Write a sequence for this structure.
């Protein structure tokens, strides 16, 4: 009976393999075998990388020359204004420039104090225009000087805006000038976002209808772009000093609308 020792058997196998390599070129044979193994490993790795970097189905459907549909759609959203800006000021005429300037300064200070008393903060009162202009008669003679001081005022409390305007006008009498006002939405991100979302939904609906009518199926989005405008500000006229009554000026903010337009390119899947 023959007894086999595992360790000795393994060594014999190793020695036999070494002898075979030595008989077939020695170290060169070993290099050839190693190079062959390395080439097999590289080929396997390259095949794996080729699969990972291959073109996906989505990329193929959106590639140049693939059937696609381009849709241009718009969407709207509305919001209630929560701020009011007023173009308000004073205009004074006097025989001399110095007296007109002094009078206008006093009236402008009185107007500003009235606005602050109505709850307007200094940060919401901004000087936007100041001028001194001579009054000239038909003969070309200067008969006096006119001084104007204009402010841009932002009101955040719309419920008290009418009373604030009325108090401001009453504080300076006939010197008051209100050139116009505009309602606005203080934060436009929300309404703009809703307008964009509505535009995209409209584009998708139009694309589905058209592809279905053509007997095809709508694929995924290849590209999307938008051009959105901010909500427009609508100016509302207010009574001038001559027609203003003692009652608070009636103001209606209404609603403001944001519009968005998007261009969406979809792939088409053949049915």
């Amino acid at each position: 009976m023959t007894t086999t020792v595992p360790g000795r058997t393994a060594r014999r196998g190793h020695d036999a393999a070494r002898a075979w390599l030595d008989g077939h070129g020695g170290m060169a044979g070993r290099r050839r075998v190693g190079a062959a193994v390395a080439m097999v490993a590289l080929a396997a790795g390259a095949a794996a990388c080729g699969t990972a970097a291959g073109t996906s189905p989505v990329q193929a459907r959106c590639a140049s020359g693939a059937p696609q549909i381009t849709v241009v759609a718009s969407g709207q959203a509305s919001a209630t204004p929560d701020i009011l800006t007023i173009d308000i000021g004073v205009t004074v005429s006097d025989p001399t420039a110095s007296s007109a300037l002094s009078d206008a300064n006093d009236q402008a200070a009185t107007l500003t104090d009235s606005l602050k008393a109505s709850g307007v903060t200094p940060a919401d009162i901004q000087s936007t225009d100041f001028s001194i202009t001579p009054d000239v008669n038909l003969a070309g003679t200067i008969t006096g000087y006119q001084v104007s001081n204009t402010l841009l005022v932002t009101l955040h409390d719309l419920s008290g805006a009418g009373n604030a305007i009325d108090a401001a006008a009453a504080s300076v009498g006939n010197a008051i000038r209100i050139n116009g006002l505009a309602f606005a939405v203080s934060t436009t991100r929300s309404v703009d976002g809703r307008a964009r979302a509505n535009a995209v939904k409209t584009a998708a609906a139009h694309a589905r209808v058209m592809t279905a009518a053509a007997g095809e199926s709508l694929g995924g989005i290849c590209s999307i772009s938008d051009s959105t405008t901010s909500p427009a500000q609508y100016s509302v006229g207010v009574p001038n000093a001559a027609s203003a009554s003692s009652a608070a000026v009636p103001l209606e903010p209404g609603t403001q609308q944001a519009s968005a337009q998007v261009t969406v390119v979809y792939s088409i899947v053949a049915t």
User: Anything to note?
Assistant: The CA atoms of residues 6 and 12 lie 10 Å apart.
